[in-house]
Amino acid sequence: MSDLQSADIGLIQRIIPHRYPFLLVDKVEEIDSHNSCVGIKNVTMNEPHFQGHFPGKPIMPGVTIVEAMAQTSAVMIGLALGLEGKNALVYFMSIESCKFRRMVVPGDVLKMKIETLRGKPGGKVWKLQGTATVDGELACEAVFMAMIDVPKE
User: Fold this and answer.
1) Among this protein's residues, is 34 annotated catalytic?
2) In angstroms, rounded to a whole number, what is the distance separating the alpha carbons of residues 79 and 91?
3) Of residues 148, 139, 146, the one with CA closest to residue 61
4) CA angle 89, 94, 97 (to 5 degrees)
5) Catalytic pick from 18, 34, 49, 53?
6) What single-letter DSSP state applies at residue 84?
7) Residue 52, CA atoms < 13 Å, CB-side half-sphere
8) Taking Cα atoms as reference points, which of 71, 37, 87, 82 lies closest to residue 146?
9) Residue 144 in contact with residue 94, Cβ under 8 Å?
10) What does DSSP assign to residue 52?
């Protein structure tokens, strides 16, 4: 029996405030409390950044790949901390060791694996490591820090 959880788009939207055109994760699965998870982003041509990045050769901007990893992390942490419906915001504090290895294009399925390096329930600052792959091929890797801001009720 597994204790792993998952989050569909409805639950994702109850945890993080992002909406179209900046909601960059479609599903989060294999959520192991606040320790690790796997996010899925289906990359489609109708995303607005493809209009200008680049005409005739659509490539997902690297910063949106890192943002997708961060949103995946926020869902994992939000679920572990019970932040559904609490209007919590998560802010980047740093991005380290970020490398891009492969282009991500429409039709790709971006699979983001996230691991917590530092952070605990009740804590505001988290350090995470993420990798994003397409068909098992590494597209991006990064270490990043984020702060969670939960409004007082």
Assistant:
1) no
2) 17
3) 139
4) 135
5) 53
6) T
7) 2
8) 71
9) yes
10) T
How distant, in Å, are the alpha carbons of 93, 96, 132, 139 from that of 102?
Answer: 25, 18, 10, 4
Q: What is the pLDDT of residue 2?
A: 57
Other CB atoms within 10 A of residue 110 CB: 24
The tokens describing 99, both together, are: 């490398």
Distance (Å, rounded) from C-alpha 131 to C-alpha 122?
25
Topology (CATH level 3) of domain 5-149: Thiol Ester Dehydrase; Chain A (3.10.129)
In whole angstroms, what is the distance from residue 43 CA to residue 84 CA? 26
Q: Which of the 8 DSSP states describes residue 124?
A: S
Of 6, 34, 8, 18, nearest to 88 by C-alpha is 18
Residue-level pLDDT, tens digit, the chain, 153 residues: 457 899 999 999 999 999 999 999 999 999 999 999 999 999 999 999 999 999 999 999 999 999 999 999 999 999 999 999 999 999 999 999 999 999 999 999 999 999 999 998 888 999 999 999 999 999 999 999 999 998 887
The pair of three-digit structure tokens given for residue 145, joined into one six-digit string: 């820090």
How far apart are alpha carbons 124 and 41 in whole angstroms? 26
SS3 assignment, position 62: helix
Whether residue 34 contacts residue 81, with contact meaning beta carbons closer than 8 Å, is answered with: yes
